[in-house]
Write a structure and sequence with these properties.
- Two copies of one chain form a homodimer.
- Chain A has 202 residues and is mainly alpha-helical.
- Chain A is built from five helices and no strands.
- The N terminus and C terminus of chain A are likely disordered.
- Chain A binds a DNA duplex (16 and 16 nucleotides) through helix 5.
Chain lengths: 202, 202
DNA sequence: CTTTTATGAATGAAGG
DNA sequence: CCTTCATTCATAAAAG
């Protein structure tokens, strides 16, 4: 199928650069489902590649006829990166409102509160309840995390959180898992058979 | 599936301007077909993996270790199975099976069902009954949240009180067959039986 | 343009 | 069942 050409990037048409009209041909949800499915497919293929590597490394006549699959970028360079999803970016006004509420002590919002808040924030830009929900969740987590990190880093355990039920208090930044691989190009769905590799241009 | 009530949302509507409408060009049915086809590919890959595993175990080669021979951080960016993982991560196949069952309408599983399912899923990777139980629990909750969120901006839709596992029939006006059919003599995701599913593209 | 950082989102698990 | 937490992933934005 070729719903391809119109990349969702067009939604982020803000930098002034390209511009131009756009047509979205798939909803985010559809995109997401497909993305997951393909990622699953790709993940298994990775296993296959590993197996072939192992087999051929000790037995090169093992009958590996798949030739250059190792060089297939889809397989070799982490395939679960399919096409991008656009994520919500709060407008300054929205952020201000959210921060204010958070700083007022409302660190967790109930379901009704979220709806109310969402309605208000909608006056200042597109937003959904999920966005609000996620925002508070992330805000809370990040807040907590920074406290822990600060306690470990700049403090010589004068008073560790005695009630801390978790032993997790370790400097996360020391083992930063930031293995952000090279800037992933936007892959598009491609047929294992069809050879037309479609990807967005830089 | 649940995305019948996709929300027309514009992300990053920061300046207040921009935006634009878009239409849904794939029906849920079409999506489902695609999903199944992709799943079929995944299944084939899975079988191949198993096949090679058994083949390699037959011939007890001296060096069949799937361990990390110098795991190149650039290459193994996507998968870091070296470090012990604290929480269960479903394999693609397991996910596939779980999703399938959930989408068949089985949203809650009894204990016997859980046991049965766990046994089956064990064929495709490590898993425990608790994992299965939690998965359904989370899946349900997530599903519900989805419909709540959708209720906010999807009010023009028909009533979406119950999130059934079965897709609602969509009005045909949402289809845009000319895009799908015009450029599309050949489906991207084709017959799973094609044994040439695995070879390098391009 | 490439690399790094900040943060929105996804999800397994725990608590109540 | 519902909410919350912890962790991880992906990506927009910033830095180089």
């Amino acid at each position: 199928m070729e719903w391809e050409k119109q990349q969702p990037e067009e939604l982020n048409d803000r930098g002034g650069g390209g511009g131009g009209g756009f047509v979205k041909v798939m909803t985010d949800e559809q995109m997401e489902v497909l993305r997951k499915q393909i990622a699953a497919y790709a993940a298994i293929c990775e296993q296959l590649v590993d197996l072939h590597k192992s087999l051929s490394s000790q037995n090169d006549f093992a009958g590996v006829r798949f030739g250059n699959i190792y060089s297939d970028p889809l397989v070799t360079s982490g395939a679960h990166k399919i096409t991008g999803r656009q994520r919500w970016t709060p407008t300054p006004m929205q952020l201000q409102i959210l921060e204010r509420i958070f700083n007022q002590g409302t660190h967790s919002v109930g379901r009704p509160k979220v709806q109310e808040l969402t309605a208000e924030l909608l006056q200042h830009g597109q937003i959904s309840e999920t966005n609000v929900y996620n925002w508070f969740q992330n805000r809370r987590a990040r807040s907590k995390r920074k406290q822990q990190a600060a306690a470990n880093n700049g403090e010589s355990e004068t008073e560790m959180e005695a009630e801390s039920a978790h032993e997790k208090a370790k400097p996360d930044y020391l083992q930063t898992p930031h293995i952000l691989s090279s800037r992933n190009e936007h892959l598009t769905f491609q047929n294992p058979q069809a050879s037309s590799a479609i990807h967005s241009v830089d």
